[in-house]
Write a structure and sequence with these properties.
The complex is a heterodimer of chains A (347) and B (303). Helix content of chain A is 73%, strand content 0%. Chain A contains 14 helices and no strands. The model of chain A has no long low-confidence stretch (mean pLDDT 88). With 303 residues, chain B is mainly alpha-helical. Chain B has a single domain, classed as ABC transporter involved in vitamin B12 uptake, BtuC (Orthogonal Bundle), CATH 1.10.3470. Classes of the chains: A mainly alpha (347), B mainly alpha (303). The interface between A and B is large, with 46 and 48 residues.
């Protein structure tokens, strides 16, 4: 009797917080089924294609490859979110990071490996610095990060677009992009014959580091404390401004790293719009919101979203349902959770 | 250069640029005053822009497009009203997901209803007709910009006055402001905070629907994916800069409209559009920084 009660209590403790998430996912799938039905597709066939397209055979590797940028962007969103800060500017940091990595990999006269390492570093530093601009705006002029990060994405994308149309332009291509990066300065394949590259290891390392810092270090503790109660964190001696800056530096560095990994590992050139068109930052933000900023949860949510998106490609091919429906699904899930007050209770 | 640089086209483009931002910013102003932070303006506007084109295409008339834009904007903002006003969920998270939902939903419907991706345009579709105000149109330089625009442009200016009067001179406006400033006191005096927030959110959605209408059927007659391009966020910034006072919010919108037109004008002078397109965002950020620094100085001085 007591054991049964204990088991039930334990289950409620550990699975209880997950229930609204499961419910929201179910509602999201249900709504997408209805939309599909309304437009004239069979929902069951759609979901079968979606799941098969995500995990069947070689598709598994496509999902893993897609999970690399998505996990990165979800962490870039989760770190600020943990402290109750929203970084909506990851797209700009991503584009600038990717562009900087391409420039270093293309033009720095150094041995291949050094060039690769410096290109990755350049991506992180540039992404980081750009995010710091928004942080400085909030600290010194009180411009809310929510607004400044978003508005800063447009000049960043415009600037990179300008560079690849002028001084960096490869005249041989129809679409504005840089020339191809030499094989030696690229990130190699992790599993031959699959689209998964060594960037996977980098992002995995970042994810482990973020989870560790979040759970085991005082930095992570202060971050979580601020997320729960900012006034308490201030009273407890957390230097909020310094923390804001640090959070944005870390977030921007990860976004920039993702840009560098995409350029050095799979696109081999910076192409205008190629980094931001798949909207990794949006999905990453949604994944982080789904997990309420908890890093491990964000990673899991990002992997699920990656599977959803790869499945979306297969779905579009086989049953001709536009894969953008998966984006609708992702936002409906978060919307439903937020409406129920399951994410971030109003302060 | 100076005279030909700021020519009639420049002011015409400025007025066109102001209108959608102004309509959305008025929606944001109402929300702000009733104590809700509405960052879903962008998404509501996009839904309105799509509905305007869909309505006038399938309904076969401009009136159908106008009605569809207003209805779709209000309906979409209903999600925010239910989530934020009724269930008291976090308005920032709801806003972010609504913006995304709007982008996804309009792209999806563009593909399924019209079978195209990117841009849809239909030659049979009519844009909002331009009306001429006899005296004003004769003014030099700004004549056609101020006196030869579509009805929605004039409506947006009138709404600035209407909303200012409503907020400051009517009992409902007083209650609305009370709910925003001191919810507990307003509720104690018998104001129904939930109902006010709900209705204000829906009206804001309708206004954003009109803003979208202006984008898709105002000067052009087309819908393209993400055609709002951050205008909803600029509107949020305008509300902040104008401290949710309608005349000041309108002034901020004028600033952004002018910077939009300036970008287009510089592009005409041969500057690359990737850089000039950034003009409104940079001006917005600069304005926010200047206003923020000024406010800091003032608070320090008061202390």
């Amino acid at each position: 009797m007591t054991i049964a009660v204990e088991v039930r209590l334990q289950l409620r403790r550990h699975l209880g917080p997950l229930l609204p998430v499961v419910g929201a996912v179910a509602v999201g799938f249900g709504m997408c089924g209805l939309i599909a039905l309304w437009v004239g597709f069979s929902p069951s066939l759609m979901f079968v294609q979606l799941i098969k397209g995500a995990v069947e055979g070689p598709q598994m590797f496509e999902t893993v490859a897609r999970a690399v940028p998505l996990v990165g962007m979800s962490l870039a969103a989760a770190i600020p979110l943990r402290a109750g800060i929203v970084n909506l500017g990851a797209d700009g940091q991503l584009a600038l990071g990717g562009c900087a990595a391409a420039i270093v990999a293309l033009y720095l006269p150094a041995p291949d490996l050094v060039r690769l390492a410096l290109a990755l570093t350049a991506g992180m530093v540039v992404g980081s610095c750009y995010a710091a601009v928004a942080a400085a705006g909030e600290i010194y002029a009180g411009v809310p990060l929510l607004l400044s990060t978003w508005l800063l994405t447009y000049p960043a994308k415009g600037f990179c677009g300008y560079l690849v149309r002028t001084s960096l332009r490869d005249p041989a291509t129809a679409w504005p992009s840089t020339t191809r990066i030499a094989v030696g300065a690229r990130l190699g394949h992790l599993f031959p014959g699959t689209p998964v590259n060594q960037g996977f290891l980098l992002i995995a390392a970042v994810a482990l580091a973020v989870i560790f810092i979040d759970r085991r270090s005082s930095v992570g503790y202060e971050l979580r404390m601020r997320g729960i109660n900012e006034r308490f964190a201030r009273y407890g001696g957390v230097a909020l401004n310094r923390q804001t800056l640090g959070v944005m530096l870390a977030s921007g560095a990860i976004a920039g790293l993702v840009g560098a990994i995409m350029v050095l590992g799979s696109q081999f050139r910076y192409t205008d719009g190629a980094l931001t068109a798949p909207q990794y930052s949006w999905s990453g933000t949604l994944a982080a919101l789904l997990a309420g900023g908890e890093p491990l949860g964000s990673v899991i949510a990002a992997v699920l979203f990656a599977a959803l998106q790869t499945g979306g490609f297969a779905m579009e091919r086989s049953v001709e349902i536009p894969r953008v429906l998966t984006m609708v699904l992702q936002s409906v899930v978060i919307l439903f959770l937020a409406m129920r007050g399951a994410i971030w209770k109003r302060s | 250069m100076t005279f030909s640089f700021f020519n009639a086209t420049f002011f015409d483009q400025a007025v066109l640029g102001i209108t959608p931002i102004l309509l959305a910013a008025l929606a944001g102003t109402l929300s702000e005053r009733v104590g809700l932070f509405n960052i879903a303006l962008e998404g509501e506007m996009l839904v309105g822009a799509f509905a305007a084109v869909a309505g006038s295409h399938f309904g076969g008339s401009l009136q159908a497009g106008v009605l569809a834009a207003i209805a779709a904007g209000a309906l979409f903002s209903g999600l925010l009203a239910v989530g934020s006003a009724l269930l008291r969920g976090n308005d920032i998270v709801i806003g972010i997901s609504l913006n995304l939902l709007a982008a996804g939903l309009t792209s999806f419907l563009l593909r399924t209803l019209f079978g195209v991706s990117g841009t849809f345009s239909d030659s049979a579709m009519a844009g909002l007709p331009r009306l001429t105000i006899p005296g004003v149109v004769a003014l030099p330089l700004v004549g056609s910009a101020l006196g030869h625009q579509n009805a929605l442009v004039y409506v947006s200016w009138a709404l600035v006055v209407v909303i200012a009067v409503f907020l400051n001179r009517t009992p409902w406006g007083l209650r609305l402001r009370g709910i925003g400033e001191q919810p507990a006191a307003a509720i104690a005096l018998g104001a129904d905070a939930t109902r006010y927030r709900f209705i204000v959110t829906l009206i804001g959605g309708a206004l954003c629907g009109l803003a979208g209408l202006q984008l898709s059927l105002g000067s052009l007659t087309l819908f393209s994916e993400n055609m709002t391009a951050g205008r909803g966020w600029i509107a949020v910034a305008a509300v902040m800069l104008g401290r949710a006072r309608p005349p000041y919010v309108a002034a901020a919108c004028v600033l952004f409209g002018l910077s939009d037109a300036l970008g287009l004008r510089l592009q005409g002078e041969g500057l690359p559009n990737q850089l000039t397109d950034s003009a409104p965002y940079i001006v917005t950020l600069a304005a926010l920084v200047i206003a923020g620094l000024r406010e800091r100085r003032l608070t320090v001085a008061v202390r």
